[in-house]
Amino acid sequence: MAAFASSSFLALSKSSPSSLSSKLGGGGAFSVAVSLPRRRRPAFVVLAVGGKPTVLVAEKLGEAGIDLLKEVANVDCSYNLSPEELCTKISLCDALIVRSGTKVTRDVFEASSGRLKVVGRAGVGIDNVDLAAATEHGCLVVNAPTANTVAAAEHGIALLTAMARNVAQADASVKAGKWQRSKYVGVSLVGKTLAVMGFGKVGSEVARRAKGLGMHVIAHDPYAPADRAHAIGVELVSFDEAISTADFISLHMPLTSATSKILNDETFAKMKKGVRIINVARGGVIDEEALVKALDAGIVAQAALDVFTVEPPLKDNKLVLHEQVIATPHLGASTMEAQEGVAIEIAEAVVGALKGELAATAVNAPMVPSEVLTELKPFVKLAEKLGRLAVQLIAGGSGVKSVKVTYASARAPDDLDTRLLRAMITKGLIEPISNVFVNLVNADFTAKQRGLRISEERILLDGSPESPLESIQVQIANVESRFASAISDSGEIKVEGKVKDGIPHLTRVGTFEVDVSLEGSIILCRQVDQPGMIGKVGSILGDENVNVSFMSVGRTGPRQHAVMAIGVDEPPSNDTLKRIGEVPAVEEFVFLKL
Ligand SMILES: NC(=O)c1ccc[n+]([C@@H]2O[C@H](COP(=O)([O-])OP(=O)(O)OC[C@H]3O[C@@H](n4cnc5c(N)ncnc54)[C@H](O)[C@@H]3O)[C@@H](O)[C@H]2O)c1
Ligand SMILES: O=C(O)[C@H](O)COP(=O)(O)O
């Protein structure tokens, strides 16, 4: 009599303490088992099942972007939501689009209960989005990094020139009926040194324009290539050299833990007396109290600020009220042209993500170029299915901690990006035994959180590297199997697959070579090799009208042990599986859902 490892695999995990649901060390989250076929979710991101997805646009977005969104989604434009209102609405939304004025906090992701799949930031800075929480919830974050670059650079130059010539103060004075020509004598820009702090998209455009004004431009950016700076006649220098030699300092770095309050008491003390500061980056890169002190002490002669630590700033904000400060309400990206461009850029990114495409502007997921994706597509399927098979082969015992994936390929290692494949194996390993939705965004995080270590190895094959991969092998160490024949000579559960004519196939189980296409579900059956076995099992399945899609037998030798792999289109009933187990030559079998 065969060891009966039935189709109740998924249901089993619901009640048994030694069940698979407790195997990945994830505790509570894993205890929710699924006994019915799960709704298959796309590998990358999203489309709402059964109808259009809903996109919440929480801040003003250009019409062109709204029109693009409306082609594929229900669009809810609700501005000025309180944090509570946002949390209430979000549970009904598949995507959210914001600018810098909305804080997308962990509470928002939690309130979405897994429905929110894309956050689109209509602009560059993503410091208002809790990226860690987004990643943990498998939510893709995309931004629109290019469309407002010129607008921000032009605003930086506008502030620079307006500050140097007291335009704002003089305007207010004239409007107040005064005519104070000697009070508003300015400073010239030509020949002065401008330090651009952050030589990225905006910083380099500011530098280019400042050169046109006759300024000597230096820049500090630890990550910018020197040749890009040289190409526009800018010298990259150290932080201290930049701030101590500049007449004007213009800030263009992102707000991160490393740049937070990067201008502070200590750094102001190193500056040239009478320096002028421009900030169109983020308020948080300046310690605002320290700037007030530096202005009062005359170290900083003037400041021009578009951004503030708290926006809008409080009415009694000393910087805003300071006579030597000019301020704008975060207008850097606010030109008609930039807003139109940003709206289109973010709408396209969100629509693409909702269709399950990998976004070129993803902030919290690895970029996989579309040509690589097309090539890897069948292997992505194979990877997920091998993960699903491998985890279903585990019997009770200690938790899964260690999975080894081996890729055999004629491609040089640098030419084979396995992040996507690893993510899909992780998805296959975790989803069948939990209620966690795993995608490219959260796969590594989810594996880590569950103490699941996935190591990767490559075997370099001779021959033509036309196909990216020859085979993928998944091995799970230190576990027992409910199908003993799945254990390799070295003691791990081992499954291996290939892609044949674009279709994933299972080609090895343990030490047995098989060949069954990975579609529908699979019965693995070990028996004593003898005539008539295929017919017997086939006719039991036929009795229940279960269609066999594929069948193959691998054996140790004639009349010895054989493993039969049977692909079935419909899941057989428990009775049918029981009848297969009762065939005298059958030693063990499992039914595996793909
Ligand atoms: N005021 C606005 O409306 C407005 C509009 C657009 C952009 N921004 C802000 O401007 C900033 C720059 O935007 P971008 O599009 O040029 O981004 P970017 O990513 O192209 O450039 C940022 C640059 O900062 C550099 N950097 C990172 N850490 C640094 C550090 N410690 N010191 C110096 N440089 C560092 C990076 O290497 C990068 O080159 C961002 O903060 C963005 O949010 C504001
Ligand atoms: O980071 C950005 O893109 C700018 O700060 C613009 O922000 P906004 O979209 O709120 O104008």
From TrEMBL:
InterPro entries the UniProt entry points to: ACT-like_dom_sf (IPR045865), ACT_dom (IPR002912), Ado_hCys_hydrolase_NAD-bd (IPR015878), ASB_dom_sf (IPR029009), D-isomer_2_OHA_DH_cat_dom (IPR006139), D-isomer_DH_CS (IPR029753), D-isomer_DH_CS1 (IPR029752), D-isomer_DH_NAD-bd (IPR006140)
EC number, as in UniProt: 1.1.1.95
This protein's record includes keyword Zinc: no
Superkingdom: Eukaryota
Pfam families xrefs: 2-Hacid_dh (PF00389), 2-Hacid_dh_C (PF02826), ACT (PF01842), PGDH_inter (PF19304)
Catalytic class of the enzyme: oxidoreductase
Residue ranges occupied by any ACT domain in the UniProt entry: 522-594
Assembly information from the UniProt record: Homotetramer.
Protein's UniProt name: D-3-phosphoglycerate dehydrogenase
Organism encoding this protein: Actinidia chinensis var. chinensis (Chinese soft-hair kiwi)
Source taxonomy: Eukaryota, Viridiplantae, Streptophyta, Embryophyta, Tracheophyta
